[in-house]
Amino acid sequence: MYKTSFFKKSLLAVMAIFLYSCDKDFNAIGDGLVGDDHFGLESEKYDVLAFNQEVTPIQSNNMVTNALGIFDNPLFGTTTANFVTQIGLASYSPTIGESPVIDSVKIEIPYFSHVLSTDKEGNSTYELDSIYGDKNGKFKLSIYESGIQMRYSYFNSGNQLPQFYYTDQNTEFFNKKIGTRLNDKENTLQNDEFFFDAKEIVIKTTDPTTKVVTTDRKKPQMTLDLNKQFFQDKILNAAASKLSAEDLFQEYFRGLYFNVEKSGANPSNMALINFNEGKITVYYKAKTESTTDGDATENKTIVLNLKGASATTSNTASFLEDVRNPDYASAITTNVNKTDGDEKLYLKGGQGSVAVLRLFNPTDVLSYNSKGEPVTGANGVPDQLDEMRSNAVVKNWKVNEANLVFTIDADKMAGTEEPNRIFLYDLTNNTILLDYSTDASSTYGGLITVGSDKRGKSYKIRITGHIRNLIKDATAKNVDLGLVVSQSATMLTFNALKNKIQINDNPIEYFSAAPRTSVMNPLGTILYGGKTSVPEDKRLKLEVYYTKPN
Questions:
Q1: For residue 403, what are the β-bridge partners?
Q2: pTM of this structure
Q3: Helices (H), 395-542
Q4: pLDDT: is 135 or 12 the higher one?
Q5: Backbone angles phi, psi at 216, to 5 degrees
């Protein structure tokens, strides 16, 4: 029942336009994301109760980008990211030819990168994007045939439900891998000492007849040689029926599993990659109808796409294993204070942690009548919100702007890679806030503000629409808000937790999902919370700017 409901919400969310962004642009020093000119306005500040919440195993299939590698974060711990993908033929029922013999097999997966410079010969120097950890890091990479047939959906009591895969399933896929690794060249840079190479790939070919040299240039990418005999047997020598349709092929060849390990004492790193752009090319020779000579052969290729031809029938999954630092682990598990809030809020992507925010001091001992006079007695609404609603009606206070400003713990974060963006959402209903859907990400905020030292100072998020709605509609629920690190401003899908977690007793409420944009981001940050023990200048507050009649 839960998965069916969640799938419907996911379908609604993915209707939003997705534009992947690495979010590299920081705010200029002192610039505000949302109108900082408050001339003539008066501000009021309100309490925010905020506490940490662990993200337990979470859905990780069919994400646009996936992590691969090992990221050592000095504050949060070590994350190891493995990956599995189904594959499919670019064209089914291929005409292979007679007596085929493989020349080579290459897998190519492009990296996110940008050009730094190009010389007069046309050679470009690139820098890789979305690399985390030591830029020169290495790790042991092994690619295996997967032994688990992944599915996009399944049937239960006549209902078709989405098939989810989760961040904690690496052991299951590792134990079911088939045979030895496929990237088995003697060159250790292709396996035991693999690294993300930023070099442009230049391929020159000479026409045997005209002697004209053709130069082909490719952006930086993973390029590995795969075992020829495996693909000779699996593809070229396969029964024709196995290569006739995607469902039959993916039952026969269940995909590739990418496993990473430490490479000796070498520092390691991690990259975000769009595996969907990857492909395997089988180069071979065979006799065909065009080869009339008895011994002549023709050069041919067969291309296999990572994931497969159809996004509605194929699947991928990212497996994230964390070894958490003790301080971080206790902050999001045993030391959480849901009553008074936490002094520090630990946000981390992947199978990490979020912050739960509850606007206003929870004290509820009074309400207000139509004249603005206090009436003793709880009414299920925080007194601060009751006062805001009364001021709007009786005193005609109008909300011009409402912001949450999150101050970064600069001492803790010193020397640590910082996320460029955070994202605030309706945690109770697993959906975006009104401000996000109406104002778009440029005014909603969430980007990091940096100081003269180029280090992060704060994040600012505008929730004017959300506050106006709470004031205007007396029946509107003051929902819990969730705060996460974000990889993309426009990725609005939510991923389900493997097991939902109860976070409130009265009424009973659950933490059941987290934004996919957070699952995609390996970084973390530490922010000051709203607890009264936090210094006033750093304490999290809701700041509302009003127009107040004279």
A1: 462, 543
A2: 0.89
A3: 410-413, 434-444, 464-472, 516-519
A4: 135
A5: -115, 125
